[in-house]
Amino acid sequence: MGAPDAGDTAWMLASSALVLLMTPGLAFFYGGMVRAKNVLNMIMMSVSAMGVVTVLWVLYGFSMAFGNDKGNLVGDPGQYFGLKTLFGGSYLAATDPASPAAIPLAGTLPATVFVAFQLMFAIITVALISGAVADRLKFTSWLVFSALWITIVYFPIAHWVFAFDGITGEHGGWIANRLKAIDFAGGTAVHINAGAAGLVLALVLGKRAGWPKTAFRPHNLPFVMLGAALLWFGWYGFNAGSATASNGIAGATFLTTTIATGTAMLAWLLVEQFRDGKPTSLGAASGIVAGLVAITPSCSSVNVVGALAIGAAAGALCALAVGLKFKLGFDDSLDVVGVHLVGGIVGTLMVGLVAAPEAPAAVKGLFYGGGLEQLKLQAVGAGAVLLWSLIGTAIIAYAIKFTIGLRASEEDESMGLDESDHAETAYDFASLGASSVLGRKEA
User: Fold this and answer.
1) Which residues, in sequence order, are bridge partners of residue 69?
2) What span, in angstroms and rounded, lies between the C-alpha atoms of 336 and 33?
């Protein structure tokens, strides 16, 4: 119990709202990339995560992620069940200066603000997975998958990576406190985790009808660009907000995030220019996201040179990686694997190379005389998250496949999931056609 810091609280309330905005941004980003007959379904997969994850988070998810460690696996699910003990106290200071506000705290923040901030990470991690299975996953199966995956895969990994000793529990997760791998804002817990899950789910679900011979072109590139812009905007809450205070760490991570993202966009466009002869708006949007992903784990541990290096590596490598699905034969619809899994791994491992002692994390990477030790720690942390996500997702996916089924029927897939799953269409083409004909007649 204590009095929260007003400045930190204000920044973290804003950061929480920024991170939540990323999920509708992702919905537009993904929605623009699919065909017109599936855009509402794609948006709904992101939006539905905002409901499913919120309910489970406040019931037991926060406790599993931030309760006292149980066997280096998960937090105590009963410690904060229903957020018990996190409400109450004197919310406002009395007129008497000797009677300040006294509420449950997480560091300098009201515990409820910390709960809200971390909830937004959980929401978007689930939403990210949906891009790998666009056009063919039944919506009801997606809801069941979301609930099971967030419980079995995400909550334990969030505990490993985000639960530092003494914040909400006496003993936190093993990656953060005992391994001491650096993942400032979720390169492992969010991006490697979601990318690995997307890969498994795409493999279990199978390829879209006609893939790869049929061209699945984005139906609305302005949606994609809008989504990328909202993601970049919201990502400042994601990265700078992970300082959990209005301080110099937030300022440094805000800047490194910007540097890496702009660099990654240019690197992606450069690859397109040399490989395809044309830089594209889709490439610019994808490069932005690749840079944001890669700088997420490393934004507190690099200087300007490191941010430039990570952005350049992520933009180029992710631009090349998205083509692997054609060579390896897995249908990752919207490049979740190529951008989030590859970008997350690049950013996490490069901490071990370009971490600079003058950055907030004060760690020396290999290129700054630190040897290979930090790189080894980063590899262990990334590998553990990758393995848990691959195995956990496979178990959940096959369980759903052999019970209620994962995939839409051939007829529904051909019709489009907007109509088959939601009885709606994003665009009234008949009405548009009639208006066009009428306009010509009047002219």
Assistant:
1) 75
2) 12
Tokens 């899994």 correspond to what residue?
Answer: 341
Three-state DSSP class for residue 2: strand
Determine the 3-state secondary structure of 71 from DSSP: coil
List the beta bridge partners of residue 105: 110
- What does each C-alpha distance from 226 to 58, 145, 261 come to in angstroms? 31, 28, 16
Spell out the residues 6+ positions from residue 413 whose beta carbon is closer than 8 angstroms to its own: 135, 136, 208, 209, 407, 420
The rounded distance, in Å, linking the Cα atoms of 170 and 164 is 9
Question: For residue 362, is it left (φ>0), alpha (ψ between -120 and 50) or beta?
Answer: left
Q: Model-level pTM greater than 0.85?
A: yes
Q: Taking the CB of residue 436, how many other CB atoms lie within 10 A of it?
A: 10
Q: What is the DSSP string of 14-56?
A: HHHHHHHHHHHHHHHHHHHHS-GGGHHHHHHHHHHHHHHHHHH
Both structure tokens of 403: 């019970």
Identify any residues that bridge with 300 across adjacent strands, giving them in sequence order: none
| 24, 230 Cβ separation under 8 angstroms | yes
Residue 341 to residue 346: CA distance in whole angstroms: 9
Q: Does domain 6-408 have CATH number 1.10.3430.10?
A: yes
pLDDT digits (tens, 9 = 90+) for 267-300: 999 999 999 999 999 999 999 999 999 999 999 9
What pLDDT, in 10s, does the model give residues 169-219?
889 999 999 999 999 999 999 999 999 999 999 999 999 999 988 889 999
Distance of alpha carbon 100 from the chain centroid: 38
Q: Give the SS3 label for residue 383.
A: helix
Rounded to 5°, the CA angle 26-415-53 comes to 35
**Residue tagged 């066997």 (tokens):** 71
DSSP 120: H
- How many CA atoms are closer than 13 Å to the CA of 307, on its beta-carbon side? 21
**Domain residue spans of the chain:** 6-408
CA distance 340 to 432: 37
Residue reference for tokens 């509402």:
40
Q: Which of 299, 296, 291 is nearest to 316 (CA)?
A: 291
DSSP state of 191: I
Residue where the block lists tokens 């997480």: 106
